[in-house]
Design a protein that fits this description.
alpha/beta; nine-stranded mixed beta sheet; binds xanthosine-5'-monophosphate; 26% strand; disordered N terminus; 522 residues
Length: 522
């Protein structure tokens, strides 16, 4: 199981987000880090004594799906309001803060969801530089109804008279709306005002300090033991490997499984990059035949995925057990993979959704898990990778799913079909890069369809494969739009594929969003 790692008391300025279970709690932390102030989530009921020990410059109380007066609703240690540390309560966080200080919270007359006009009526440091009329993002049923006399209302919406408040003598502020979401105008400014002007942070933190901290924490935890890191060729696992390499050097062993469903040139690229950046043990397992023979004749998408997942675990496991003294397994789990409740001593109540390929391995093999990226978002991981000296081309690579071309080769997975797909895919990526569009798109690829269509070549009728091209833009991969690809780029892609990839006589473009489609076709 993931080892519970207590927070290291950092030397740098720290803001803690008390996580009451709101969906955007981690986003608050990321917005604060954007102000160059280190910020981390902790559990909502962390004791005031422990908070004093961690010595944060400020506390932010997050939102929550709960109701302040509901049975078993999450409550902070009431002593935190006596610490003298500046506090910003957001949504539920504002309601618990106001309730603690004698205000009353009740269900509002009407629930407010989404974009709402907000009028700022009272000058305050929190609203410095923010216009008096802004659009804010609301998402609440309850609201503060009777504000205690110790609070001053700073802003209101049509149905919420206390959209922003401050205490008259304590450094305590509340926002009923969510400054952390991009839909709130000047949300970043509000958070910046809180951390810089109210908490007095200078904003000197850089992603480099995070690297130093993680490196120190990894060294301490690993000691003289060996760590195994599965490399996939993608950004996350490469950043984890680079971080571990910096921390423990040759105590790191990496395993790269070639499952035969990689992109054109990927296997060589991984080896080449590895030997350039790391002078440590790399195990390349050529399991192409094994995967293909297990997948023979299988066309049902879920069965394919299951087989690929199972074989991966078997192959990885047999390689991992051959590595002596390995005690830890490192994974590139990112915050968006972290869901639900679990437990670390200070950390928020979270556990990992093991959708990664190596899911299940740590438990079976008795490895302890190292997940140095679990507090971070993808763009922060990219920054970290750049700082660790990884090449641009790897940092900005589109995500590639664990089952690889297996989920893009519809119908039976065979070497000849994979080869067709690989060639077509390489053309798609090459043309997007040449057109300067690769970075404007979050994911693009070719899909080989399990149908054939009639065509004509010279005087002959052909009956050949169809390639679908998919390109999407997305913020979080949960929803996505199809990319409005310029016609000339489409034309070049289509011409090159039909002229250059044997056995393909037709190219189609996928114009479906997610939902209702998914990004991958299987
Ligand atoms: P969908 O197809 O669900 O994809 O819209 C969303 C994102 O997840 C990636 N994806 C996977 N990644 N293992 C992975 O590591 C998988 O089994 C898997 N399936 C989908 C997909 O490429 C997209 O970025």
């Amino acid at each position: 199981m993931s080892q519970a790692v207590p927070l290291v008391v950092p030397d740098e300025e720290l803001i803690l987000v008390l996580d009451f279970g709101g969906q955007t709690a981690q986003l608050i932390a990321r917005r604060v880090r954007e102000q160059h102030v280190f910020c981390q989530l902790v559990r909502h009921n962390l004791s005031a004594a422990r908070i004093r020990e961690l010595n944060p410059k400020g506390l932010i109380l997050s939102g929550s799906p709960a109701s302040v007066y509901g049975e078993g609703s999450p409550q902070p240690d009431p002593e935190i309001f006596q610490l003298g540390i500046p506090i910003l309560g957001i949504c539920y966080g504002m309601q618990v803060s106001c309730a603690d200080q004698g205000s009353e919270v009740k269900p509002g007359h009407s629930r407010e969801f989404g974009r709402t006009a907000c009028h700022v009526q009272e000058p305050s440091v929190l609203f410095d530089g923010v216009p008096s009329d802004i659009t804010v993002w609301m998402s609440h049923g309850d609201q503060v109804q009777n504000l205690s006399e110790h609070f001053i209302s700073l802003a209101a919406t049509e149905t919420c008279p206390f959209a922003a408040v401050r205490h008259d003598s304590k450094p305590l502020f509340g926002l009923q709306f969510h400054p952390e979401v991009t839909h709130t105008e000047f949300g970043g400014k509000l958070l910046a005002n809180f951390v810089k002007h109210i908490c007095g942070c200078r904003g000197t933190w850089q992603i480099g300090s995070f690297i130093e901290r993680e490196v120190a924490a990894i060294r301490e935890r690993v000691g003289q033991n060996r760590v195994i890191c599965g490399l996939s060729g993608g950004v996350d696992s490469s950043v984890v490997a680079a971080l571990l390499y910096r921390a423990i050097g040759t105590q790191l062993s990496c395993i790269f499984v070639d499952n035969g469903m990689l992109r054109k040139g990927e296997s060589d690229a991984v080896r080449e990059r590895f030997s350039r950046h790391f002078k440590t043990d790399l195990h390349v397992v050529d399991a192409r035949d094994r995967f293909l023979s297990e997948l023979k004749g299988v066309t049902e998408p879920q069965r394919k995925r299951k087989i690929i997942g199972r074989v991966f675990i078997e192959v990885f496991r047999s390689e991992a057990v051959s590595i002596k003294d390995a005690k830890f397994l490192a994974q590139g789990t990112l915050y968006p993979d972290v869901i639900e409740s679990g437990g670390a001593p200070d950390g928020p109540a979270v556990a990992i959704k093991h959708h990664h390929n190596v899911g299940g391995l740590p438990e079976e093999l008795g490895f302890e898990l190292i997940e140095p990226l679990r507090d971070l978002f993808k763009d922060e991981v990219r920054q970290m990778g750049l700082q660790l000296g990884l090449p641009d081309e790897l940092i900005w690579r589109h995500p590639f799913p664990g089952p690889g071309l297996g989920v893009r080769c519809l119908g039976e997975i065979r070497e000849d079909r994979l080869s067709t797909l690989r060639e077509a895919d390489a053309i798609v990526i090459d043309e997007l890069k040449k057109a300067g569009l690769y970075r404007a798109i979050q994911q693009a690829f070719a899909v080989l369809l399990p149908v054939q269509s009639v065509g004509v070549m010279g005087d002959d009728r052909t009956y050949q494969d169809v390639i679908a091209v998919r390109a999407v833009t997305t913020d979080d991969f949960m929803t996505a739009d199809w990319f409005h690809m310029p016609y000339d780029v489409m034309e070049r892609i289509s011409t090159r594929i039909t002229n250059g990839v044997r056995g393909v006589n037709r190219v189609v473009y996928d114009v479906s969003s997610k939902p209702p489609s998914t990004i991958e076709w299987e």
